[in-house]
Amino acid sequence: MRSSLKLTKLGWIALTCFVLSLFAFIYLSPFIRSFVASFMTWEQASRYPPEWIPDPFTLENYMKLFKLELFPRWIFNTALYAGLIVAGNIMFSSMAGYAFARLKFPGRDALFSALLALLMIPIFVTLVPNYIIIYRLGLIDNIAGLALLSLANVPSTFLMRQYFLSLPQEVFDAARIDGCGPIKTFFYICLPLAKPALGAVAVYQFLGAWNAFLGPLVFLRTPENFTLPVGLSFAFQRSMWTEYTPIIAGSLVAAAPTIVLFIALNKYLIKGIVIQAGKG
Amino acid sequence: MSKSHLFLSQKMKSLLEKRKSREALEALILISVVTCLNMVFGYFAAAFAFYLSFFKWDYIGPMEFVGLKNFMVIFKDLWRGISGAYFFQAPFYTGLKNILLYTAIVVPTQTILAMILAAFANQKIKGVQFYKVSYFLPAVTSPVIIALIFIWLFMKQGYINYMLQFVAPGFAPDWINDKSYLLYAIALVAIWGTSGHFMVSFLAAMQSIPRDIYEAAMLEGAGPIRRFIYITVPMLKPMIVYVVVLGLIGALQMFDLAWVMAGSNGGPGGAGYTMALDIYNEAFINLRPGVAAAKSIFLFALIFSVTYVFQKKYKVMVR
Amino acid sequence: MARVFLENVVKKFGKVVAVNHVTLEVKDKEFMVLLGPSGCGKSTTLRLIAGLETPDEGKIWIGDRLVNEIDPTKRNVAMVFQSYALYPHMTVYRNIEFPLKMARVPKEERRRKVIEVAKFLGIEDLLNRYPKQLSGGQQQRVALARAIVREPEVFLLDEPLSNLDAKLRVKMRFELRRLLHDELQITTIYVTHDQVEAMTMADKIAVMNAGKIMQVGSPIDVFEKPANIFVAGFIGVPPMSFFEGTLIEKQKSLFLDLGSVLFRIPKTYYSALHPHVGSEIVMGIRPQDIKVTLEPQEDSYEGKIVGYEPLGTETYIHFTINGTKEYIAVIPRGMRISLKRKVYWKSNPQKLYFFRKSTGEAIY
Ligand SMILES: Nc1ncnc2c1ncn2[C@@H]1O[C@H](COP(=O)(O)OP(=O)(O)OP(=O)(O)O)[C@@H](O)[C@H]1O
Ligand SMILES: [Mg+2]
After folding, report:
1. Which of A160, B145, C225, C336 is surrounded by the fewest CB atoms within 10 Å?
2. How far apart are CA A100 and CA B37, in angstroms?
3. Element (H, E) at A29
4. Which helix (H) or strand (E) holds C6?
5. Please, what is the end-to-end C-alpha distance for chain C in angstroms?
6. Angle (deg, nearest 10), helices B143-153 and A245-264
7. pLDDT above 90: residue B235
8. What is each CA distance from B227 to B112, B124, B219, B233, B241, in whole angstroms?
9. C182 near C147, Cβ under 8 Å?
10. What is the ipTM for the molecules in this complex?
11. What pLDDT digit, counting tens, does each position of A154-178 carry?
């Protein structure tokens, strides 16, 4: 009796490990396969059945990539875009999050609900009007114009507000009594205390901006101004290289910052996802 | 004149010294950027889209009021599609049909897969963090990059067909270039890309279910499968609703994967054409912003009603 | 000169009336304790004075200034919070310095003052630590230092001792009063729900209940001459025993009809109580003033023990007379008692309190 129970338990553990490992393989193998192939010649990478050891080992793909003058520009543009978005959201959403969480002013909750309601509107609805607005501002084909659209996101404001609500009210009260007005309190007390939440906002906004496609596709026009996702899909569709391996190498270069960031911060990021989901 | 000016500035000053108005004023400064940007690029833009949907325009010339004509374009297209017209005559219909099929495949599959994986991971085994990280990795990678990599993996003589040969010998379609497989290829990539993310959400929800509930069920003799069906799934209901709603919103406006894997014209026979692609094409290729606006309102109505009905049915609100 | 005066102050949160027509005067240099059960509006009153809330009605004066509309930064009050509310990202030094910095005090002077205050409170060794590296008692001192350093006109403390352990609380209670009242001589308003704290520290106690002030007076007054049933029942450990019944007169003597027994009321109370003959009244006796014996004695009444709590030095017993209502008495240790045992009790005839049942107001 007892030994059969033990046996089924062992069976379960074996099954669990098998299933989890199988899926780990499924999720990881495209990355591994691409990584290996990026050091192969296209001739070898497209051989069937697939080969796993680059022979000859070549950096040709990466060299081709950087020989194309556009590619470093795309990296720069993506970094600039992500930097603007991260900076804007850190600054503006923390200010607004604090005001919505801790200050009293008429219409506060109604306004905040109105901002949250915006999350229901699909981006495709506002795409054309925003294109026209940015066009009128003369900011089409301009990273700054593109960044303006998501400089102060509602989700980051929401996250900051939740964070400030979770801090004890007494600290804010103490600052008021010690002689800080609301804005001074923000700079002296809120910002230093909000480091963890600001970090979360920064990481999420970075991932979002670095990976963004639709916005850059619509608002950027000339190849010199593209970001990596738009640039790579452009390179693919124009068949800039006769071989596919440079595209793979380019994809890996483009994915590298997000992957490195994720692996470095995985515990923290996964927790953040969980907190976000918890609000639902 | 100067007297009234003085009076006004005095009034301003006393206003500033008053506790309430000072706090309100500083609060307004703090929220100004977020509010202005979102009012302009959110509410004003949405209102403008609504306005635009009643006009014929080419971005340059004068706007011409056409009433419901733009919406008639949609319904004529749908009607032609229902009567069996080809993709070129009924692109919107094709996009709608494809996206509904795609959603019907992706959302249930990724939700159930995520839940099952989470259930497996929610046991006392080593290396859970490793599994979480590997499942989550696709979610932090740009869909465009994922699509580019998968185009190569999906080639006729590619990696996926090679692996498939062990599971289903002889089954080796040309995924990307065959119109009967393209949409499924896109769906598979989407499932691969998002299920890991949702698995992590489910796992967190499962870990917050009190252990003693399971222990009680175990004493009553419920095995692991029945425990999953009778305890875990009901306790997870809010999380399931959250995941499904997020999945629906994402799937119904899918754009990136289709753009790269099928191309903006939808690939062979429009097999990979979606509503989102169609809106993009109307707005920026056909230069009919009015029609694009009307179509985007249709998309909004579709997403809103589907998620609303779903949430209503399961009585859980998701922001 | 900083007198604090609240005039008919009302504060509502939605439907909850947290502070209900409160009028309270705190004289210059006075140590006023606000005492009341949880949720009665003590903190709200304090926050109104600090300016963290605005009153819905009424006026608040600090010194000669009407401060209703004045920003908390301009009121020159200091506050110590229950959780101390130290700034976690600043060292102790920066914490104490912060209010001076906000007041644009020059750097050198700030430094001098911080060190002076730190020495005064015996925390000069802690100046480079962060709040989370401090014990509860040390945090409390830092919070005090931060409040004192500005030399405020009014000092507000909201349950500052409630996070400390019992021993430290007794020590700090004593020190706090000496510091604020005897040495600094600042007008202080101190909120607590602990009556021992209130009795030992206060010049005056204001007892609050459900947003209203029930009585203001010196600790002795509040204890000896409670203005109503609430104050009588709230102050004193264990709480006063209340006997309810109709007041009747027989042969020139007053009796309280407790149902099964007639309690004879001593002559001293005759003239005060006479107008109330025939009405329902409540008699209160402090448990310490009820004498319980095992054998009958002169003027004693029967009772039955339904429970007891031995505390070591003495024992509280719960007894009934005839029915279910329980009364408490204190007996010396060593007396042999057991459950359900019949006992005899009598009261100290000088220490009886009488209240109107309808309003709860004290008659005598
Ligand atoms: N910001 C607020 N919003 C709504 N209701 C409040 C708020 N602050 C206090 N209240 C309510 O006002 C009443 C009085 O609260 P207050 O904090 O003044 O009580 P207290 O006497 O300090 O109690 P305690 O001893 O528990 O601290 C309570 O019923 C409380 O629920
Ligand atoms: Mg309180």
Report:
1. C336
2. 16
3. helix A2-37
4. strand C4-13
5. 37
6. 130
7. no
8. 16, 16, 11, 9, 20
9. no
10. 0.91
11. 999 999 999 999 999 999 999 999 9
Give all strands of the β-sheet with C262-265 in edge-to-edge order.
C262-265, C253-257, C241-250, C280-285, C352-356
Separation of CA C158 and ligand 2 centre (Å): 7
Tell me the CATH architecture of domain B73-314: Orthogonal Bundle (1.10)
Closest to B296 in 3D by CA, of B269, B275, B315: B275
CATH superfamily for A68-240 is MetI-like (1.10.3720.10)
Between B130 and B223, whose confidence is greater? B130
CA dist., res. B113 & res. B244, Å (int): 12
Residue listed under structure tokens 């040709």: A60
**B22 Cβ under 8 Å from any chain C Cβ:** yes
Angle between helices B182-207 and B237-252 (to 10 degrees): 150
Query: Cβ distance A35 to B161 under 8 Å?
Result: no
Q: Are residues C349 and C309 in the same domain?
A: yes
> Between chain A and chain C, how many beta carbons pairs sit less than 8 Å apart?
56
What amino acid occupies position A162?
Q
CB neighbours of A11 closer than 8 A, spacing ≥ 6?
A: none
Does the predicted TM-score (pTM) go above 0.90? no
Establish if C185 belongs to a structural domain: yes
pLDDT digit string (tens) for chain C, length 364 residues: 589 999 999 999 999 999 999 999 999 999 999 999 999 999 999 999 999 998 999 999 999 899 988 888 888 899 999 889 999 999 999 999 999 999 999 999 999 999 999 998 889 999 999 999 999 889 999 999 999 998 899 999 999 988 888 888 888 888 888 888 888 889 999 999 999 999 999 999 999 999 999 999 999 999 999 999 999 999 998 999 999 999 999 888 899 998 888 899 998 888 888 889 989 999 999 999 999 988 888 888 989 999 889 888 889 999 998 778 899 999 988 788 888 888 999 998 888 999 999 898 998 8
The CATH number covering residue C67 comes to: 3.40.50.300
Q: Tokens 């990026």 identify what position?
A: A38
Last residue of a domain, one of C183, C214, C234: C234
Token representation of residue A44 = 């070898």
Judge whether C364 lies within some domain: no
Distance CA C25, CA B260 (A): 76
Neighbours of A55 (CB within 10 A): 11
Which pLDDT score, from 0 to 100, does residue B219 have?
A: 81
Q: What is the per-residue pLDDT for A253?
A: 95
* Residue contact C99–A179, C-beta within 8 A: yes
* Edge-to-edge strand ranges of the sheet holding C314-320: C290-293, C342-347, C301-310, C314-320, C327-332
Of A185, A195, A209, A203, residue with least CA distance to A273: A203
- Two structure tokens written together for C68: 């209703």
Helix (H) or strand (E) holding C73: none
Which of C6, C9, C17, C40 most suits a substitution to test ligand 1, by most atoms within 8 Å of the C-beta? C40
**In whole numbers, what is the pLDDT of chain B averaged over residues?**
89
How distant is the alpha carbon of residue C12 from its chain centre? Answer: 23
> What is the pLDDT at residue B17?
56
Work out whether strand C187-192 and strand C204-209 pair parallel, antiparallel, or are unpaired. Answer: unpaired
Distance, in Å, from the CA atom of C100 to the CA atom of C123, rounded to the nearest integer, reads: 18
Q: What is residue B8's predicted lDDT score, i.e. its pLDDT?
A: 57
Shortest distance between the Cα of C72 and any Cα of chain A, in A, equals: 5
Q: Which residues of chain A have pLDDT under 50?
A: 278-280
Residues on chain B touching C69 (C-beta within 8 angstroms): 17-20
Is some CB atom of chain B closer than 8 A to the CB atom of C56? Answer: no
Rounded to the nearest 10 degrees, the angle between the axes of helix B237-252 and helix B91-121 is 150
d(CA A114, CA C286): 60
In a domain, C88, yes or no: yes
Report the nearest-CA residue for atom 8 of ligand 1.
Answer: C44
Whole-angstrom CA distances from A221 to A85, A139, B58, B194 are 20, 11, 18, 30
